Every structure is written in structure tokens, then in C-alpha cells.
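Q: What would this chain look like folded?
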Amino acid sequence: MLESKPFIYPFCTAGGCYIYDVNKNGIIGVSKETYRYLAGKTNKLNPIAEHEINKMLINGFLSHKKFKNILHPSSNSLEYILDSALEKITLQVTQQCNLRCEYCIYSGDTGNYQNRSHQSKKMSFELARKGIDFLIAHSQDSNRLNVAFYGGEPLLEFELIKNCIKYAKEQAEGKEISFSITTNATLLNEEIIKYLYENEIMLTISLDGPKEIHNKNRKFAGSGTGSFDKIMENMEILKESYPDYFKNVMFNVVMDPTADYKCISEFFVGYDTVKEAQQMATMPSAQYSDKTVTMDENFRADYNYEFFKIFLYKLGRLEKKYVSNLNLSYFGRLKSTYHEKRTPTSGLHDYGHPGGPCIPGQMRLFMDVDGVFYPCERVSEISDAMKIGTLESGFDIEKCMKILNIGKITEQSCINCWAFRYCFQCAAFADDTKNLTAKKRLQQCESTKRDIEEQLKDYCTLLELGYDFEGEENPFIQISKKEWEAKENDTEKKTAGISL
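A: My prediction, written as C-alpha cells:
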């Protein structure tokens, strides 16, 4: 029946069995018999499996085709994009910071990261102005632009930021321009808050949870005291003075994996100052680090329970007030990646590239205090591989092309990988600060595939339980036990209908 081994990934949830077809980019609900046969768990082909497999073959599934070579689809248009379609520049206005955080990527000799350390260097207005000019000159085909300010702590250079914003508004006439700042929020005061509000600046604030957890890692330089009280004091001023401005505020929560996750979650659910704001949870960066991030078992259990609560909320079984905003972005990623953006195809082309790398410089061009270009602010500033140009010389197209086609260094592994469409490994995963290496990239592959498999399972489980990804966010609906059992009994019908 099958002339060659199909390019598929079989998996099961608690409620059903599925085949992810790589060529078609489709998820198909199948019987246990078909799953066992296609997963290689049995050589016996019973009538049920034979019927289902024949049906899949008739509809173009179960092809064995793979890429012949790795090449990013944007390779041929890279020079045009970098010349005419830039969308953002992030200006490193200072390398100094008034905090010394335990897991900061700029902690230098006292930390675990292969990166620069905090220094007194800052950007001149002349250099910043040239950076803004560069963005505008290379964005003739982009209608929306963003100028972001980064550090160190960017609010140490508040006057420079104001001058940059004034200049950018004058020069970007005819384009929609926005501004954003990543800050520890300790330097906010009434003057700065008023300016941020009047200019509708998007604000990303570092806040790791309640006082005892936040202060463990985020301390003032010199005194070593925690920064929580000062941040909360400033947040109260901001919220009292401009309550509607909170729509422009996001809290970036770097979660300490040795801390009490339940305590962190309850803080962001119940603390009045922050509970309604946007929240984004991340783990300490493992890139460029000499230290392995190990998650405490209690932390892991509570962390997973929070996702369970999110699913209950989405299914109408739990009120929103009990759910933290911390991990709602995970649900958004499921919906976006596996429902909205997962486009079914007729089959693979002769070439393609794993997901992961953005077009270096287009979406998040990062310029340091010396005018050196990097793909974004998350890469190491001591890495030669990540220096993709300078303000004076422009882009190094050869380096940009190598970063864009990072999958080329692991070509055979990527060609044979079922998860390449959803791979999230950018070039930083392969960077040892000297070269982009296949060894370093491959070290991340098993955990990457494991994450993608879990996301597929979560997506299918929500479909099994009746979640409507096409509809609006479910309000809380009290469902009777009888109604819930009826939904559960209908799971098999819903599973069989998943062929996307």
C-alpha cells in the first residue's frame, strides 16, 4: 500500500490518535489501529487501518517527499528587504545600568553569560540621529516604523530619548511611527511618566513577582537592596495619574526556576497594581550561558497547573479572575501557530528552511552605542558572527545571508526533521560567539522537538474538548455535569473531523 515511508509524525493525546503530515502540513485524526501501523508499532494492516490509509492516499497525504536542500525563501529578496523594507531600529542609548541583576546577560565577569559587561559608554545624539536616518532611508516600502530604546537602563539617558523621539517624528513624515522602551522602571517619576503618556510610548517593565522573589535577583548597584518597592511606588503614580495608559504597559517576568511559581502566579492574579496589565513570562536565557537552567520539580508542577487552568478558562470551566495573564501568550501562540498561520499545502518544494530565523535586521535591527548592527538585542555583543554591519558601512549581506540560512549548517538533520515548520531555533542557538556551529545547534534539537510535540498535543486536546478557535474568547459559562459528559462523549466525532 505504501511504496515508501511517509514523511509524518504520529502522536496521541488522552483523547485520540493523530498523524501530522509534513508535506500537507495537516493534522489528521486516525484510529488506534492506523496510528500503530504508521508509527511502526505493528506490521499488521487490519481493514480499519487499510481503509483510513487508502482514504489519506487518495487525498494526497502520506507522501515521502522531503526537501532536496535547505534555502530560506527570502534569500533572493534579502538585499531588497534590507535596502527598502526595514520596520524597526532599537537604539542602545547606554551600556550602564543602575541595577545589578543576578541573571542579567550583561553581568560580565560576575555572571554566567558570554557577553559584554555593564560599562559607562553611552550613545551620542549625533549617532542616534544617524541611526534613525538609516531606518527611514531603508524603509521606503514600510508604512509603519518603530524606534525602541534599550540599555543598560535607557531612562538614564532620558534627555537623549526625548531628542530622538522629537527628531524621528519630524523625519518620518508620512509614515506611522511608534516608540517603545524596555526599562526596570526604578527611574520613573512624574515628569517622565507624563512624557511617556503624551507620546504613547510602549513600556516593557521588568518585574519578577512579589517582593521576596523579585528582590532576590533584581538589586540596586552599590547598595545591593531590592528594587521592588521603588517599582511599585512608581507604578502607583503611573496608574493614578494616567489609568488608561496601562494599555501601553507590559510586565516582562523572568521566572526564577528555583522560586515558588504558585507565589509568582498569585501575585500577578491578585496584586491590584499589575493584575490587569499585559504580562509576558520567560525563563532566564539559556543562550550564551555557561550555566544550565534547572527547574525545581515543585516549580514545574505549579507551572503546568497554570496552563491547565488556562485551558479550563478557555473551555468555559473557570472564571477569568482565577487565571494569571502570565501564560496566556502560550494559548495565543497555539492559536496563531497551529490554527491561523498553519496553511495546508499540496506538498513540499525542492527547497525550504526550518522556522526560527527572522530576516536579520528587518524587524528588530539593534544598534549599539558604537553604531554596530546586530539582528536583535538578544544576541551576544561579543559575537563576531552576529555583527551584521555598521552605521557607516551598512549591512554585511554575506553575514545576513548566513544567519538567514542557519539551517544550512545542519542541512541533513533539518531535511529529515518532521518539526522543521515549527522550529524556533534562530542563529543564536548555533552561536558560540566565534562561529555558528552545527554541534551547538544540534544540541537543542531534541528539546525543540519535544516542545513542538507538546504544543501539537495541547492544540488537538482543545479541539477534542470542543474549543472553537474561530470564535471569540469564551466567556465563563457554567456547564452542568450532564452537559459536560455529553461534550466528552462527542469527543470521538470531533477527533475524526480534524483534518486541517
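The chain has two domains: 8-65+470-496, 75-339.
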